[in-house]
Design brief:
The complex is a heterodimer of chains A (283) and B (385). Chain A is an all-alpha fold and 283 residues long. Chain A has a single domain, classed as MetI-like (MetI-like fold, Orthogonal Bundle). Chain B has nine helices and 20 strands. The radius of gyration of chain B is 25 Å and the shape is globular. Classes of the chains: A mainly alpha (283), B alpha+beta (385). Bound molecules: adenosine-5'-diphosphate and magnesium ion (MG).
């Protein structure tokens, strides 16, 4: 019984909703309520299945807006993830090198933002970055010229790094904290300066943590909607925003569903690579 | 049968090797009043110790007595709270670990799990900045030395415990350190492998001519390996000397009891006409030969090793000195040796060990047999503390 629980969970919360979305992506737009056809008809499954087709996916490929949004999402996610590694690694490293008492405090500090709503925290960034916001007020007080960050890609990166930092820092911390201190001593004993000991021992051994953190950040960032919507500008193109627009503004449910399905498939590839790598580490 | 490998005449070299007796020889390593505390606990307490070039020195003591800490201070991983550590006459205080010409074989081996056997051995050579060809040559030489040529490409987790130990050893000697530090080098091996490796280590040390400092809690290991043993207890060095000296002439009951089994008789010196002393104890009178016995009236302890006592079912002739009558309380048969526990008085047990020289004994000793234990006047050592 206990063994099937995870499958039940997966089935209810992932496979079934996904199948609904996938079915939707095979439908066509229709002026009805809800706005697509065919509708599922238990009485005549044959006609229902025959009416499903891949037309929507054709539109996805032919209209450059989807490809552009998809590429732009991958770019923003890649750059954000790289920034997260650069910022998260020193934080995790510092935490792992602390005395065990202050470590727990720091882990708490890193998880503390989760105690408030994500949306509120993003709105806080709006308050900071908007033209007459806290940032520019501070710059003004220092006698510096104001900066226009709000509604640019820079604001999106700031938001992404801020929101996903715990997802990068914590897996890295978990790996670095486990690392056997005597390996660093062995490196020093064999003539490695602290700098070289880090790059030849600590860093290569922490790569599984880097991979875990990068995936935990990259995948949700690709589909992120709230941050580009609230902090980004009209030129910030992200697939999450596109799906939202198709769904709510254009009422093109099949196109939104097809874009979501395509996104999921592109994200399954890095996930499987990660799985393979994890299996190799465990062996 | 043990096969005799080709090697220099170690016996001749070893029996004459005693630089510590020559006041003209400068030590390679000198610990000078070294103290280390962790919080309010004192791990190493005012240790002074000289180790000489090409010596195999063993620190021996119970777990937690500060051996590893002392060694880690020489490697540079701990800083002494007081005292100095010198190497070749130079104070090491300002030299960071990566610049010290010593290498350590860690108790856990500390092999790099992300590097192959060859990668582990090459690590220190790369840090030295050697050329690729020189590194490859040296790595191959090391692999051959520890008989792991076939395992160069293996990862540490694919090796047995004994193989890992050899990789750790090869990695530590690859840089030709002036002192090789070994922290419980054989503790993780099983008994048979441990005994083989002990002899390999001594051969290796002769061959390389490197000074070895080893740390162990196993007295057999220290005795087999070392030229000299430093016996440690609670952060202090309590005796330093060659194995035979610390075993046969311990300077205290603590050392005597830590190195093997021993029978101790508390008594008072009746007379002492150097070197012959007569002692009176609750177990009877003893006649002993010991130049260092204190004068009459002093309280002393006579310590006699079990293998230096004889056991017999027949009473020795009247007038024989150092005879104890008793009953066999227990027998431990070890094949080569038999240990008899003899009750010589109410709640007074002594231990006698006899080599089993014959295969068949007509009247073997048995439980509750009445026996006589005797020992020669020079079999024991008189201790004053
Ligand atoms: N880093 C440390 N922090 C606190 N106490 C330590 C540390 N290292 C060793 N000790 C303590 O110092 C004493 C000596 O330890 P150690 O040198 O490892 O002993 P040994 O190697 O003889 O078993 C022990 O009581 C140990 O608990
Ligand atoms: Mg130790």
């Amino acid at each position: 019984m206990a063994a099937i629980a995870p499958y039940l969970w997966l089935g209810m919360l992932f496979a079934f909703p996904f199948l609904l979305v996938f079915k939707l992506s095979l439908s066509d737009v229709a002026l009805s309520m809800p706005p697509y056809a065919p509708k599922f008809d238990p009485g005549n499954i044959g006609r229902f299945v025959r009416a499903l087709d891949l037309d929507t996916y054709g539109r996805l490929v032919s209209d450059p807006i989807y490809i552009k949004a998809w590429l732009s999402s991958l770019k923003i996610a890649a750059i954000s993830t790289a920034l997260l590694v650069l910022i998260g690694y020193p934080i995790a490293y510092g935490m792992a090198r602390c005395s065990s008492g202050s470590r727990q405090l720091l882990v708490l500090a890193v998880t503390l933002p989760f105690f408030t709503s994500f949306l509120i925290r993003v709105y806080a960034w709006v308050a900071i970055l908007k033209p007459a916001g806290i940032l520019n007020a501070g710059l003004h007080a220092l006698g510096l010229p104001p900066v226009a960050v709000m509604n640019t890609d820079a604001a999106v990166y700031i938001g992404m790094v801020y929101a996903y930092l715990p997802f990068m820092a914590l897996p890295l911390y978990a790996v670095l904290e486990k690392q056997d201190e005597s390996l660093i001593e062995a490196a020093a004993d064999l003539g490695a300066t602290p700098f070289r000991a880090f790059w030849t021992v600590t860093f290569p051994m922490s790569l599984p943590g880097v991979a875990a953190g990068a995936l935990l950040c990259f995948i949700p960032i690709v589909g992120e909607f709230v941050i580009p919507d609230l902090l980004g500008g009209s030129s910030t193109l992200m697939i999450g925003k596109t799906i939202w627009t198709e769904f709510f503004n254009n009422r093109d449910w099949p196109a939104a569903a097809a874009a979501a399905t395509a996104l999921l498939i592109t994200l399954v590839v890095p996930l499987m690579l990660y799985q393979r790598q994890q299996a190799r580490v465990l062996r | 049968m043990t096969t005799k490998a080709a090697r220099p005449n170690i016996g001749a070299i070893r029996s004459s090797f005693a630089p510590w007796n020559d006041p003209g020889t400068k030590p390679l390593v000198r610990f000078d009043g070294v103290t280390k505390r962790f919080g309010d606990q004192i791990a190493v307490d005012n240790v002074s110790l000289d180790i000489y070039e090409r010596e195999f020195f063993a620190l021996l003591g119970p777990s937690g007595c500060g051996k590893t800490t002392l060694m880690r201070m020489l490697a540079g991983f701990e800083t002494p709270d007081a005292g100095r550590i010198m190497l070749g006459g130079v104070d090491l205080a300002d030299t960071p670990p990566h610049k010290r010409p010593v290498n350590m074989m860690f108790q856990s081996y500390a092999l790099f799990p992300h590097l192959s056997v060859a990668g582990n051995i090459a690590f220190g050579l790369k840090m030295e900045g050697l050329k690729k060809v020189a590194i490859t040559d040296r790595v191959n030489e090391m692999l051959k030395l520890v008989k792991l040529e076939a395992y160069a490409a293996r990862m540490p987790h694919q090796l047995s415990g004994g193989q890992r130990q050899r990789v750790a050893l090869a990695r530590a000697i690859a840089r030709k350190p002036r002192v090789l530090l070994l922290d419980e080098p054989l503790a993780a091996l099983d008994k048979k492998l441990r005994e083989e490796t002990q002899f390999e280590l001594t051969d290796l040390q002769m061959e390389l001519g490197i000074t070895f400092l080893t740390v162990t809690h196993d007295q057999d290991e220290a005795m087999v390996l070392a030229d000299r043993i430093g016996v440690m207890d609670q952060g202090r060095i309590v005796q330093i000397g060659p194995p035979t000296e610390v075993y046969e002439a311990p300077n205290s009951r603590g050392v005597a009891e830590f190195l093997g089994d021993i029978n101790i008789f508390e008594g008072i010196v009746e007379t002492f006409n150097s070197p012959v002393a007569s002692l009176k104890s609750a177990d009877g009178h003893f006649k002993v030969v010991d130049e260092d016995c204190p004068a009459g009236g002093a309280t002393v302890w006579l310590a006699v090793r079990p293998e230096k006592m004889r056991i017999s079912p027949k009473a020795p002739p009247k007038g024989t000195a150092n005879v104890l009558a008793g009953e066999i309380w227990d027998i431990g048969y070890l094949g080569d040796w038999t240990t008899y526990i003899v009750e010589i008085g109410p709640n007074r047990l002594i231990r006698v060990a006899q080599a089993n020289a014959s295969r068949i004994v007509e009247h073997p000793l048995s439980w509750d047999d009445k026996v006589w234990v005797s020992f020669d006047a020079d079999a024991g050592v008189v201790l004053t503390r």
